[in-house]
Write a sequence for this structure.
């Protein structure tokens, strides 16, 4: 079975064992990183034999790519573009920031994409592609939302710059919080974006 077939079967078929393995893998990556994740530990977590993990996911590359693909697809389902109004765009951006805080900062975690990015040199091309697509998904959404705030004058390059700066602020702030243990670091780093509409109007 090739990698693509494994990924597709893992994400489209409803198989409790596969889901449990992927859940355990995501948890393990978030806790100790990709390199430290082992099939033996995952098997013990799920309550199956190590051979069963290999049956569903022949290699770590198969498994982590499937996990990243699922992560991307589930995140995409939650991304809804607001109405093309300035106030709606700001509310959508603030909700995005709140969601990042609740799922990453408040849980005292780094995001899955941040952890995998730190170990990118260990990843296979298929995993890296999923990782890149995930970041681009967020950048495209953020760029569209920002464009709704001042679409009358912003160039495509300016929109992309704002999207990159916002996303970099969120991920950078989560690392600062993890390193310092000070949750307020996140608020300090994102306060500007929560009032972006006023800065664009000035």
């Amino acid at each position: 079975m090739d990698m693509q077939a494994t990924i597709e079967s893992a994400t489209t078929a409803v198989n409790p064992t596969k889901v449990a393995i992927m859940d355990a893998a995501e948890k393990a990556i978030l806790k100790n990183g990709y390199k430290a994740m082992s099939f033996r530990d995952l098997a013990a977590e799920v309550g199956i034999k190590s051979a069963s993990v290999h049956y569903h996911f022949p290699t770590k590359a198969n498994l982590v790519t499937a996990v990243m693909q699922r992560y991307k697809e589930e995140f995409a389902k939650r991304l809804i573009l607001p109405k093309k109004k300035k106030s709606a765009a700001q509310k959508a951006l603030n909700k995005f920031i709140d969601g990042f805080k609740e799922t990453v900062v408040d849980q005292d975690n780094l995001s899955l994409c941040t952890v995998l990015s730190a170990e990118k040199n260990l990843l296979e091309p298929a995993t890296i592609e999923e990782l890149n697509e995930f970041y681009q998904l967020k950048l495209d959404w953020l760029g569209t939302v920002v464009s709704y705030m001042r679409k009358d004058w912003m160039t495509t390059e300016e929109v992309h710059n704002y999207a990159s700066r916002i996303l970099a602020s969120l991920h950078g702030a989560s690392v600062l919080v993890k390193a310092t243990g000070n949750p307020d670091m996140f608020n300090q780093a994102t306060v500007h974006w929560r009032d972006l509409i006023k800065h664009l109007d000035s």
Remarks:
- Residues 125-149 form the longest helix (25 residues).
- The mean pLDDT is 90.
- The radius of gyration is 19 Å.
